[in-house]
Specification:
The complex is a heterodimer of chains A (545) and B (209). Chain A has 545 residues and is mostly helical. Chain B has one domain: Winged helix-like DNA-binding domain superfamily/Winged helix DNA-binding domain (Arc Repressor Mutant, subunit A, Orthogonal Bundle), CATH 1.10.10.10. In chain B, helix 2 packs antiparallel against helix 3 and helix 7 packs across helix 8. The chains are: A mainly alpha (545), B mainly alpha (209).
């Protein structure tokens, strides 16, 4: 650990005369040396006698004493959480002290059993994996990702909710760890289970250290949901149903009379739809006029434009082409994005893929990466800090978008239990922010309603709507992202819905914003009546039905 | 279950307990005691170098992790304290290299003074008058300005000698420089600080008269 070579490099300095070599010229003591007791006892005694004889030197000494007294008051009180951080290090030290050399017969037997089990799983003598792999590897298998994601159908097909939850659970953290439900059935805990438990332990410790009660509650809730295996069926079905409704609504949105009927039903003005369509046409021109048009914009800007065109109805060839080109661009960029940017892009891709059936495989892969970003435990993440998405650095609106995207991702093949787990944690993060608010924050309330309405109880939801009543949408402009999440988050029949629809009408009077993303967000706000999917399918607005 | 007895002496130079050697020898409590003994000193050490409490705490945590990870390779040849400060100094130098071109960031619970100094926000439990707190803040800002005006090598020597109370010979060993250089840096630092803080004080007195 000797790293002397590092010492001098960053500290090159102009040396003062006599400041070099072996320190020649600095053998004489100075008052500071006496105060710090630096020197031999003879030197110090000699210096004391000089001080006694020389009043100027005595004054110098007094000055130095005063200086040190002043400077020694400079200190800082550590954070209360600092003790927790160090306790974490000490715990790690304790773990490293666990006896590692005692190889009892029981441990030997367990080790042999694990190795044998792993070997048999890998060799797969009964060819249990062949059929699944064969289906997945075919082109048809890939194309049917939306309809029948294999990971989930397997969990569902295992019939018992508990085993389905366990199957998903075991892959939650250690994605690369093979899991076999048989191990659990035999009472043997797999490596995946152990990794899962260790990860939960790391999360719990992190929340304890940070005294993050909301997140700790969210974690308990998420674990309880998983272990109970409750609602496995609805967790499997709901995203698929929601996706099916999205697809159907997209087809219906292309029809003017349906859009107008939906507008009228929610108290909107028909003229608003004309504005939406005009905005969508402009956006389509901006991102889809030429193959390279989307390249002028950043990924999250293209994402919001794609969402706006889809919301308005990708009913013309120009708009379809724009969505296609935009999605191509987003799919290219997606692998290099992380955190908030990935969420924004993924949210757009989920909606676009639902209606245009493009980029499905990329969504599944990226969705899994998003979930893993929150759940992965390594030396840094969870051990020393939370994942980025659970910190206050990420905008509340992005967390809201993540909630909505995660609710749909199981329909693309991402394990539903993992999505539900992460959604719980993200909601916990928003609740934590709400507890710490100095001033009410409409973006936070809107994000909670937009992304997590289904996880909130009635009172909580009503409270959020009540809080949001303080801001009229038109006054929140140009923060159209908050307006959009507010508008899409309050559902018909909920407290404050009618009043909000009335307030939303004023948005149509706003001029077109200058920037493309702002125009896209305004378009999303204005299209709420038929694009938000808050009120079941648009089928009931089809004339004659 | 009986623990293996530590194979190393419990004390080394100057009757200092060598917790790292004890930890290496299997003593379960040793690392905890090391952390308890050094935590405050180390946080203050990093704080006065970077003036950011959160970063100082992060660095302190990283230091203890480094000590833990490196404890397997630790050889109880010199003083453990010297070893701890050597790792701390190297950690600071690495950090300094990485952060030098960037602006300072401050956590939200720190007050940022006009000159960029941060201090802990004492909202609750501070019984002093606002004027006293203001005066205290100004005094603190002046001391920080003075300490920050020292070059990094002078500041490091001053920190180790004055605040951490390390002997010059040990600082010389830690920084890999001759004892004479340590002394000259120390003397230069003290005279610069006297000048700056003395001038500041006289300015205030003149201004207040």
């Amino acid at each position: 650990m000797s790293q002397h070579s590092r010492i001098d490099e960053p500290f090159e300095e102009p040396r003062s005369p006599g400041d070099g070599g072996d320190g020649g010229g600095h053998d004489r003591l100075e008052p500071i040396d006496l105060l710090l007791q630096q020197g031999t006892s003879a030197e110090l005694a000699d210096f004391r006698s000089r001080v006694a004889a020389d009043p100027l030197l005595a004054l110098d000494l007094a000055d130095t004493v005063a200086l040190l007294e002043r400077l020694r008051t400079v200190r800082v009180e550590p954070n209360p959480a600092f003790s927790g951080k160090l306790a974490d290090v000490v715990r790690r030290a304790d773990r490293r002290m666990q006896p590692q050399h005692r190889f009892t017969p029981w441990l030997a037997a367990a080790a042999i059993a694990i190795v044998t089990f792993g070997f048999v799983t890998w060799v797969d003598p009964l060819d249990l994996r062949v059929e699944r792999t064969a289906v997945r590897d075919t082109e048809i298998g890939r194309r049917t990702d939306i309809a029948q994601p294999l990971g989930d159908s397997t969990a569902f097909g295992s019939a018992t909710p508990g085993s389905a939850a366990a199957a998903a659970r075991s892959t939650n953290v250690a994605e690369d760890t093979p899991h076999d439900g048989g191990a659990e059935a035999n009472g043997t805990r797999s490596v995946g289970d152990l990794a899962y438990e260790e990860a939960l332990g790391a999360m719990r410790r992190r929340f304890d250290v940070e005294a993050a009660t909301q997140l700790r509650d969210a974690l308990d809730h998420a674990i309880a949901e998983q272990t109970a295996g409750a609602d496995t069926l609805s967790r499997w079905l709901d995203p698929r149903n929601a996706l099916a409704v999205l697809v159907r609504d997209h087809e219906l949105r292309a029809r003017t009379e349906v859009r107008h009927a939906a507008m009228r039903r929610h108290g909107g003005m028909v003229a608003t739809d004309e504005r939406v369509q005009a905005l969508a046409d402009t956006l389509a021109l901006e991102i889809g006029a030429t193959p390279g048009a989307a390249g002028r914009f950043r990924a999250h800007q293209i994402a919001v434009a794609v969402r706006a065109i889809v919301a308005a109805g990708a009913s013309t060839p120009a708009r379809r082409l724009a969505v296609e080109r935009g999605v191509d661009r987003l799919v290219q960029r997606l692998p290099e994005l992380v955190g908030a940017r990935r969420v924004d892009v993924l949210a757009a891709l989920v909606e676009a893929a639902a209606v245009e059936r493009i980029g499905v495989v990329g969504i599944r892969r990226s969705g899994e990466s998003l979930v893993a970003e929150v759940m992965r435990v390594d030396e840094e993440t969870w051990q020393r800090r939370r994942p980025d998405l659970l910190t206050s650095r990420v905008p509340a609106a992005t967390i809201g978008s993540a909630g909505r995207a995660l609710a749909l991702l199981p329909a693309f093949g991402v394990t539903s239990e993992r999505c539900a787990f992460v959604r719980r944690l993200l909601l916990g993060q928003l609740r934590e922010r709400r507890d710490q608010l100095q001033e009410p924050d409409p973006a936070l309330f809107a994000a909670m309603l937009y992304g997590y309405s289904d996880l909130l109880d009635g009172d909580d939801r009503d409270d959020l709507v009540r809080q949001l009543r303080r801001w009229k949408p038109v006054h929140l402009a140009p923060d159209f992202r908050t307006v959009q999440q507010m508008a899409w988050g309050v559902r018909p029949g909920q407290l404050g819905f009618t009043r909000l629809q009335c307030d939303l009408r004023a948005l149509v009077a706003l001029p077109d914003p200058d920037s493309m993303p702002q125009r896209a967000l305004l378009c999303l706000c204005l299209a709420t009546s038929y694009a938000a999917g808050r009120d079941g399918s648009l089928e009931r607005f089809v004339p004659g039905e | 279950m009986k623990q293996p007895a530590p194979k190393v002496p419990a004390t080394s130079h100057s009757n200092e307990v060598d917790y790292l050697a004890q930890h290496q020898g299997g003593d379960r409590q040793a690392f905890r005691q090391l952390v308890d003994q050094y935590r405050d000193r180390i946080v203050q050490f990093f704080f006065r170098l970077c003036w950011d409490r959160d970063r100082a705490e992060d660095l302190a945590q990283e230091l203890f992790l480094k000590l833990l990870i490196g404890s397997k390779r630790y050889r109880p040849e010199g003083k453990m304290t010297t070893f701890v400060y050597r790792v701390a100094t190297n950690l600071w130098i690495d950090h300094y290299r990485q952060m030098r071109p960037r602006p300072r960031f401050h956590s939200l619970d720190q007050v940022t003074y006009r000159d960029g100094e941060t201090g802990r926000m004492d909202c609750a439990g501070d019984e002093r008058e606002p004027s006293e707190r203001l005066q205290d803040g100004e005094e603190r800002a002046a001391m920080r300005r003075a300490l920050e005006s020292l070059t990094e090598p002078h500041r490091l020597v001053f920190e180790l000698a004055v605040y951490q109370e390390r002997p010059y010979a040990e600082i010389s060993e830690l920084l890999g420089i001759p004892v004479g250089t340590v002394k000259s840096r120390m003397h230069n630092a003290v005279s610069a600080l006297k000048q700056m803080l003395g001038d500041g004080e006289s300015d205030r007195q003149v201004g207040g008269a």
